[in-house]
From TrEMBL:
Pfam family, one: MFS_1
Main subcellular location of this protein, as a coarse class: membrane
Keyword Membrane in annotation: yes
The name this protein goes by in its record: MFS transporter
Subcellular location: Cell membrane
Membrane topology field: Multi-pass membrane protein
Organism encoding this protein: Mesorhizobium caraganae
Length: 395
């Protein structure tokens, strides 16, 4: 049985343990399977809506329930369960996710869809933790985090293309979810390459390491940034319609943005060590506010395209720097395990919060809310820096 050895066996690249390249790649793939739905939601849930399985409000509930469940699943597995028997845990979660995808394909009511996607989200969150637990043990967690988002986004792109062009036209949304179930079953072979036991990180205080001002402000910085993106993305089509842009064009913009996200993730892996995380988060926050402001002012088609593509690029470009922020906030790396949960909760809460501001068919309050969320993210970073400096001065 191969395992990641104890802390003393770590090498220069790892705080604890010494996984092989194949073990690292397998863990990143398992985590990527858990996040495939993030790129496929517009295709799969759009098909459910078009086929009349759900109304617009029910569609939002399905999407939100799954997002929140992913966040809960990743937090529970990372914080409450030991990093032991990771191969069997990965295999069980993959089987559970496959069953939830199969159940979704044959769900006959909105309530059964919500139930199936909630179960799927819990399993997906657990799979995400398989990757983030190992990433947290690396001395170069930001770089490996960049690899992680690159792998998952490339997989999302490939599957989105397959589903949109071939599967859904032939077999509808049910066929799409069956394909996801097949991906889960096929990934069982990879699950048994994952390190069976991860070496222990120092977690004596556990939740106490997270319930500190530096950790909380760091996680709130991540949460607010993803609220920005989640709110705009959920309402991109009605925003486009308000400005005279047809749904097909918005669909093309979404597809192009997904491809740009890959470029953002790959760029981040190249430059993450050369740019200070504080500068990167502030600069990206300013760009996010600017993109949101553009979408408030009745942009032309060209400007709309540009804003959407820039938002796609910065979405994943920022992730390695958010990982560095969380590590700086909590050297035991407990907080970094909750970064995916903070991201997913932001993606889930953003659309709900923004929808409360919509007045009839005027969707301009959505990008206004997004701009405020992006600005709040920068403010949280500022608070983190002030607290960190004060602690250093006291020490």
């Amino acid at each position: 049985m191969t395992s990641v050895r104890n802390a003393d066996a770590g090498n220069g690249d790892w705080l604890v343990g010494n996984p092989t390249a194949a073990q690292l790649a397998s863990a990143l793939w398992i985590g990527s399977v858990g996040l495939l739905i993030l790129g496929l939601q517009p295709v799969l849930l759009g098909a459910l809506y078009t086929e009349g399985h759900v109304s617009g409000d029910e569609l939002a509930l399905v999407a939100t329930a799954e997002m929140i469940a992913i966040g809960i699943g990743s937090a529970v597995v990372a914080m409450l369960l030991s990093a032991r028997n990771m191969r069997w845990k990965s295999a069980i979660l993959l089987v559970l996710l496959a069953l939830a995808n199969w159940a979704t394909a044959y769900a006959v009511s909105p309530n059964s869809l919500i139930g199936a996607r909630t179960v799927a989200g819990l399993a997906e969150g657990g799979l995400v933790a398989v990757a983030t637990e190992l990433i947290a043990r690396s001395r170069r967690a930001e770089r490996i985090g960049g690899y992680f988002v690159t792998i998952q986004t490339l997989a999302q792109c490939a599957l989105a293309l397959l589903l949109a062009l071939y599967v859904i036209p032939a077999a509808g949304s049910a066929g799409g979810f069956i394909v996801l179930a097949v991906v889960c079953i096929a990934s069982l072979a990879v699950a048994f390459i994952v390190p069976d036991n991860y070496a222990d990180l120092p977690k004596e205080e556990n939740f106490g390491n997270v319930l500190t001002v530096p950790s909380l402000t760091a996680l709130l910085c991540v949460f607010c940034y993803f609220m920005f993106f989640g709110s705009v993305w959920a309402f991109l089509e009605p925003l486009g319609a308000q400005y005279g842009i047809d749904g097909r064009t918005v669909g093309l913009i979404v597809s192009a943005s997904l491809a740009i996200q890959v470029l953002g993730a790959m760029t981040a892996t190249v430059f993450e060590a050369r740019i200070d995380y504080r500068f990167a988060i502030v600069a990206i926050g300013v760009v996010a506010v600017a993109c949101s402001a553009v979408l408030v002012r009745s942009p032309s088609l060209t400007i709309f395209w540009a804003a959407a593509l820039v938002m796609g690029f910065i979405l994943l470009f920022i992730v390695p720097y958010q990982i560095r922020l969380a590590i700086t906030a909590d050297e035991t790396r407990t907080a970094v395990l909750l970064v995916p949960a903070a991201q997913l909760f932001g993606l889930a809460i953003g659309p709900i919060a923004a929808s409360l501001l919509i007045d009839g068919k005027d969707f301009r309050p959505v990008p206004e809310f997004a701009a405020a969320s992006a600005a709040a993210s920068v403010v949280m970073l500022g608070l983190f820096i002030l607290v960190a400096r004060r602690r250093r001065a006291i020490a």
